[in-house]
User: Fold MFS family permease from Sphingomonas endophytica.
Amino acid sequence: MRQARDGTFALLFMVMLTIAAGNTALQSVLPALGRSLGVRDAEVALAFSISALFWVLAAPFWAHRSHRHGRRAMILLGLGGYATSLVLCGMFLLAGINGWIGGTAAFLLFIVGRVIYGATGAAAPPAVQALVAGSTTREERTRALTLLASAFGLGTILGPALAPYLILGHLGPVAVGLAAPAFVFALFGVAMLLAVWRRLPDDRSDDSSHGAVNAYPSIGGQSSGASVTAAIAPEGGGRIDARDPRIRWWLFVGLVMGHAQAMTGQVVGFLVIDRLGVSPVDALGATGLVLMTGAGASLLAQWGLIPLLDLRPRALVLVGLALAAAGCSATGHAATLPAIASGYALASLGFGFVRPGFTAGSSLAVDASLQASVAGKVTSISGASFVLGPSIGVALYGIGHAMPYDAAAIACALLLPLGWRALRN
Assistant:
């Protein structure tokens, strides 16, 4: 029995990892794709933002449907939407690469595929959480859901790391090139869909276990832990306004920090191309290295340094903001690959401190009856940052290549005195 349960958990872990890795892999190649197709950088940012917007809007809807339609059905829907989206994105990009349609038309159709991912991919994570919560004891639940959430973080490393090695040449007369990662990760999605269809039983459980909204899986957007808190908290608790003085400054810090992270993460592909002076295709390996280094630094903070240092939430936020400000400034003015990677890693390390810091601070500010409400607001802020953040970052990048990084550094620096005065443990 335990062996079967462990096998189910491993399958669900892979579902979460696949959804995150495929999305971030595509994000890591989009700047190179846009430049190769002659598409404006702003249109590339639009592809990021629209997908995140639909995820943010759809996630609460799907989170409350697993009891009615079954968790297996919701996971299959999410994986089906994920695979369909990637296949369509790959086909539209293939058409643009081979000149069958114009670059702008290919990218606009590509955005349609991204909408499908945002609207349906959000169905799977809450259902996965609910299945895990329903199959574990109360003592096991927090650990199991936390481990499950780490799959998203691991996916943000594996996606950009694998993407440069998935670029193909020609298949007969057809040039595949930068469209290949979309097709490869679509195959992973189909494999996961078939495994879930065969191994998970149909269910419409009446137990009290439930999932929660998950933030949009994006480069640099590691889990804050709020989704786990919401999944563990009993349903039907009280509600709290985001302007409540107990949590408003914690949420404000999270909102500003999230936009700073989204701005800097989504333009790093353009920065590598322009600072190193290489072609978009040649920049893919370097871009993957920078993104993988940043994701690794963020996970090092959350999985290693924070438990080791045992800092309080206020200290986590203040230390993280200082590191993020220094790292953003260093990245924006770096001229070599080692300098870009080091600066981005330092910024990501700082963001890796701030994200769990503002999450824990918000949670500790209220009693148990409000935990689910606070966790929902934290998750919404984390997801919403990737709706406008990429477009703001690209707009600033058009003014000057260092601008999004300088703006993020200034924002983090200005938050330091505010955090010192307004945040309380």
